[in-house]
Amino acid sequence: xxxxxxQQDVIKLLEQTGALRRxxxxxxxxxxxxxxxxxxxxxxxxxHLKTLSVGLSRKVRQNPELRAMIPQLxxxxxxxxxxxxxxxxxxxxxxxxxxxxxSNGEDTPLHFRQxxxxxxxxxVLLVDDIFRSGKRLSELKSLVEAxxxxxxxxxxxxxxxxxxxxxxxxxxxxxxxxxxxxxxNDADSCLLCRQGLPLETVWV
Length: 204
Known about the structure:
The chain is of the alpha/beta class and 204 residues long.
């Protein structure tokens, strides 16, 4: 596999590890979809995490403005699947540091741990394993900016937008693969429901 894996290579890896599944799924926000992705199932294997992290870092490095920032660049992630991605990308880029934000529960806001705060003017690259709903990345961006940091880009293993995914404006977005699932807002508008296909509820 090349140092920057192709879309086809990434999808093949996700399928082989069970990270990408096709069927009939309902998300916690009520959306129905014909595919479900859990990148952490692929990242269980260090060699896959390394491959994806190095590939993503090279996508970032291709941007001349961000390449010039790397010695001062902080890699910041939401806790969970974003943390191993952050460390992998930071190691490959040789960026300045890694830190993350977490929450105390599903309905509580993200926060930095005590003493983990972004500095005024700090250049920050937000990373995560998946960019799907965009909820965590939007919240993380606001948190970084509230502490005086400047978000200069977003980097994710896989971009899987839904009809409700937010737009981050002119911020550069880096990803290794884009998945175009078919979504329905509810059971009434879902073709898979009308076809009687078994429905599986997913957590995130």
